[in-house]
Amino acid sequence: MKIKLSGLAALFAFFAAGQLYAQQPTPTPAPDETVKVTTSLVQMDVVVTDKSGVVVKGLEPEDFIITQDGKPQTITSVTFVDSNTAQRTRIVSTTSKIEKRAIPVPPANVRSRQGRIITFVLDDGNCLASPASLAMMRDDIKKFVDQKMQPDDRVAIYRTKGGSSLMQIYSSNKELLKRKLNKINLIVSGACNSAFEPLRDNSTLKATGTGAATFENEESKKARKDNEDRDRRNHVAGTIGVLNFVVERLKNVPQRKTLFLLSDGLLTKFDSDSYDALRDLADKAARASVVINTISAKGVTVSGMLMAQDEVLPGIINGPDNTGIASQERIDEERALNEGISYLAYATGGKFVRNSNDLAREVTRVLDSTTGYYLIAYEPDEETFSGKAFHKIDVKVTKPDLELSFRKGFYGRTEKETQTVYKSADSPLFQAISSPLDETGLDIQMTTLLGKDERAVGFVRLIVHIQGSDITFTDEPSGEKKAVFDVVAVILDEKGKIADEFNRTYPIRIPARGLSTVQRNGIDFSTDIPLKRSGIYTLRLALRDNNSKRLGTAGDLIDIPDPKSDKLLVSGLITSELSPDGQPKPFVGRPISAAFAPVFSLSAPSIRQFRSGSALPYVFTINNVRFDNSSASGRITKEVRLYRNGELIDTEAERPLETTGQSRAGINEHSGLKSLGDDLLPGEYALQVIIRDKVKNMVSSQSIDFEIID
C-alpha cells in the first residue's frame, strides 16, 4: 500500500554527507543480568533435574539450602525462569522434493524473539587434538545444526586455532552455519608428546660395549619434557584466552547463555597458573550468565589400552618391558586431561560429557536439561568483599533424588570492579560492533543483498531502515530539522582479518513540513560494498544517533561464491515497489556519500510490509547462465514458495523461466509478482525463489522475509 504524500517532492533535497568526527557518547545501560554479585546481593542460577534429566518445577524457598564458605545464608528471593517462554515466576520476595541438493527451508525471522543463544568452541588449536577428534567435532556440530537446531536458536562457532573466528555472528541460518563448518580442515596444530601417541622403542639407536642404549641422556630428556610442557601450557592459555573473549562478548546479553567447549582435554595442575586462569574464567562466566559445558572429543576410550603399533617389548636382551608403564601413563594422562575441562563445567554449573561417540546427541541432552532454572538470591555479609578471596557456594535441596547444577563460587569483587573502562570517545560505538548480538537502543533493521558485477567478485548491498520515531531532531536557525548519524561497518574474512570497513558521519536536514513523514515512515541507509575474493564473511554495522547517543547494531554472515565456478546461483532477491507501468522496480544502490534517503511506502525493500489480497513484487538475479544460447530455452525453470513460521503454505508450480531479463556478463536480472491470498493472516512470512537448470541438473534458491499487516 502506498502512502500518499503531497507537496513533499523536495523533502530530502537537503540531505548532505560529511566525515566522521569524535564525540563523547553515553554508554548504553547494561540490561538486568541473570547472575548478580554486589555488596548487597548475590543472585545465582540453579538448574534442578530429576534422574532422567527433566527440569523440576514448583520448588519452594524452604526446599533450598544455600551456604557461602560453609555458612548458611538467608534466602531473600527465589524465581523460576522458563527458558522456553522467558517467563519468570516469582515464588517469594522479601523487602530486602528429491534432488541432488535439498531446498533449504528459509530461516525464521528471529528479530523480535528470544531463542536460545548457543556457542560452540572447537579446541582445534590444542596440540593434543587429533584429526579423528577434529572430524568428530565438525561432523557432530553439523549434525546438531541440521537436525536439532530450533528455528529461533542463534548459534556461533568459534575455533581456538589461530584466533580465526573472534568476531563471530550468532546466526539462525542453518545453511551458512553448515558451510562454515565445512571449511574446517583436519590439520592439527602439532603434537606435544602425548601418552596416546604410538610408543616407539629407541633402545637400539646407539651401540655400547654391553649392548644398546638411547641417544637421549637425562639432561636432554629433561630439556625435551620442559619444552613439551611449555607447548602444552601455551595451548591451554590460548584456549582459555578464546573462552575469555567469548564470555566477555556475551556479558551484556540479557539472558542465560550456553557454551559448549569441545576439546581433547586441558592439562592443568591445581597449583599452576593455568588452574588460576580457569578459576578466573569460571568467575567471569558466572557474572556473565554463561554456562560452560565441556565435551571430551576423544569419543569412547578405554583407559590404559595399548595398540598393536605400540613397541612396548624390549629391543635388547634383558631390556625393560614397558607394557605396564605405557598403560599407566595413558591412564594418568586421560585423568589429567579430563580434570581441566571437567573443573570448568563443574565451576560454572555446566555438564561434563565423556565417553560418547555422538556429540550431537550429548549437546541436545544438555540443552533439554536446561529448559528452566531457579534464580536464588541472598544478602552477603560485609566481609565478603573485604578482599579478593574466592568464596565457595553450595546449594542443596531437601527433596530426594534430585540433581543440581550451579556455579560453585565467585571472587570477592563487585560488578563495578569488573566493568569495561572505555579508552576513547568512540569506544561504545566500536564495542557495539564487536558485540555478538544486536544492540536495540536504536531500532534498526538491516537487509543484505548479494550481487555480482564487473567491479568485483561480488558485492554486498546494505539496506538499513531506521524507525522514524527513534530519531532525535534538533532545530536549526533556518527552521529546518537536523539529525546526525554515525555509521560504522566492518567486514571480516574467514581468518578474522578486515576485508573492508568504513566510518562516516551523516548530517541530515529536512524542512519542518516533512518531519511528520519521516517520523511515520523513517529513513533508509543503503550502499554497496565490493568484495574482491570469494568466501564467508562476517558483517557488523553500528549506527548511532548523535543527538540522543542511542545505538543500534546489526550483523550477518555473507557467502560470496567462487567466480570461477559455473555453478548456478540465485542472488539479490528482494521485495520491491511497482513502477508506473505496473512492473517490479529494481532497487538501485547508492554511493556511500549519499547513502540516506526517505521512505515513502510500507512496501519499500527496507520495510517489506504488505496487505493480504495484494500483489508482492520482487526482483532477483541469476548468475552463470547465458540465456542468449538457444539451448537455454525451457531448460531454466522457476518455482516460488511461500512460508509462514517455517511451514510451506503455498507453491507456484515449476515452469520455464522467461528469458526477457536483462543480461550482462552472465548476470541475468529477473522479476515477478506473487499474489497474496485474502485469507493470509497478519504475521511474518518468507518468499522463496527456486531456479533449476534441467540440463546441468543444478538448483539454487534464495529467500526473503516480509510481513503481512492489517
Task: Provide a descriptive summary of the structure in words.
It is a single chain. The protein is an alpha+beta fold. The chain folds into 2 domains: about 115-370, Rossmann fold; about 425-710, Immunoglobulins (Immunoglobulin-like, Sandwich), CATH 2.60.40. Helices cover about 20% and strands about 35% of the residues. Strands 1, 2, 5, 6, 14 and 16 form a 6-stranded antiparallel β-sheet that branches. The chain has a 5-stranded parallel β-sheet with strand order 8-7-11-12-13, with helices on both faces. Strands 20, 21, 22, 24 and 25 form a 5-stranded antiparallel β-sheet that branches. A hairpin with a 4-residue loop joins strand 1 (about 35) and strand 2. The longest helix is centred in the N-terminal third of the chain and has 33 residues, at about 220-250. It is globular.
CATH hierarchy, class of the largest domain = Mainly Beta
How many runs of DSSP E, i.e. beta strands?
Answer: 37
CATH topology annotation of the largest domain: Immunoglobulin-like
The structural domain count equals 2
Oligomeric nature of the chains: single chain
Beta-strand proportion: 25-35%
From the helix content, strand content and strand pairing, which structural class follows? alpha+beta
Considering the protein shown, what is the CATH homologous superfamily of the largest domain?
Answer: Immunoglobulins
Our Rg estimate from Cα atoms comes to 30 Å
N- and C-termini, Cα separation = 11 Å
Instruction: Let me know the average pLDDT.
Output: 77
Please work out how many helical segments DSSP would assign: 9
Runs in which pLDDT lies below 50 for 5 or more consecutive residues are: 1-33, 92-100, 203-208, 420-426
Name the helicity range.
10-25%
Biggest sheet record? 6 strands, antiparallel
In CATH terms, what is the architecture of the largest domain? Sandwich
Shape: globular
